[in-house]
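Table S2 (text version). Query chain:
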Amino acid sequence: MRSAIVDLLAGKAAENSPVDVRGWVRTRRDAKGFSFLEINDGSCLANVQVVADESLPTYESAVKGANTGAAVAVRGRLVASKGGGQKWEIAAEEVTLLGQADAESYPLQKKRHSDEFLREIAHLRARTNKFGAIFRLRSHCSWAVHDFFRQRGFFYVHTPIITGSDCEGAGEMFKVTTLPQGQTGHAEDFFGKEAGLTVSGQLEAETLALALGKVYTFGPTFRAENSNTPRHAAEFWMIEPEMAFADLADNMALAEDLIKFVVRYILDKARDDLALFDKFVEPGLFARLENLLADSYARVPYEEAVDILKKSGQKFEYKPEWGIDLQTEHERHLCEVHFKKPVIVHDYPSNIKPFYMRLSDDGRTVAAMDVLVPKVGELVGGSQREERLEVLTRRMEESGMDLESYWWYLDSRRFGTAPHAGFGLGFERLLMLVTGVANIRDVIPFPRTPKNLEF
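Corresponding structure-token output:
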């Protein structure tokens, strides 16, 4: 059933036509002989005003009992509004109170609430304008991602959430076990071996790409990293495409196209929600989003990027040097100050990148790339994968990995190996980019961070 409020805004109803609206009361204002109810059904920022006359049979029980936060059903007729800021209002013929909200204890009243306070009531914050808009935008961006890959012939695949493989080799995985606390011995555990929550679906996606050609995953990933920062969460969603018969240049082009597609999509489909963030969160947001579409992204080798940072005259907390990973301050300087647009840094030193990235002919760099964007820094990280069995095996051994545990991954290089490439895009960072929201906790409905497992 479509939202009646959306239909009203779209001009799909005529004056005096019957209307049926169900939603939550934002405010109620009583006057002599009637009351005004502001109703929002969650479908958009706009409320609809309901005028309820005291002659209604349920006026005392339903209308006067409908405090802020209450759920109501209203039947009536559409009439021209006598107030400013709205074309239509509803003359109520029937009001039903579906769910009361206690006026004394309901925490959302008609005032500005801080983000910190709203995180404490995450189960209710989607009822506010800001968070309702965030989570609608999250839905729009999700659809855009699927549309992008579907239009380009990618297959959507599901990779395991529980895994025995640590894709990044960092050991920062949440352990999954059915053993009683203190008991050891993986042979007695549910899976018969050490298991954890996945940090990436990449390794499995690679094997599927080497069968289906082009695939992508879009699902939750987990990182047991004790990083209590505005940019990190323990549970987050990743978009991970993999392409067979593709190289680093193909990978960079795909990442740029994906970002631009999503930005165009929400500018077309969700401009009203974006306007809230342009006005209250980051003035100038629309201009920044248009800048993401205006030009091709800069492409610069890592060595050149380090040289730019060294010659910038900027004093960084972390000194830029060859062989160190770029920090957020470096990333933002490159795209916000030097190039003034998104930047793709490529060909990183092999010693700071994972085993699966293709070793370059120089023996010191790998075919890796990161997409850096204003306000966020790194948004995308990817590479051409190492398709040569002997090189991949050597890199895994140098990383101290147990090759027997990755026999199936090595098989993909034994049987019909081919050049292939892919990347990971953090979905929450994408949402931070398009809304201007500075804290990852505010673009996830129920964030999971160190010492926080509420809701």
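Notes on Table S2: The chain has a mean pLDDT of 93. The longest strand covers residues 18-31.
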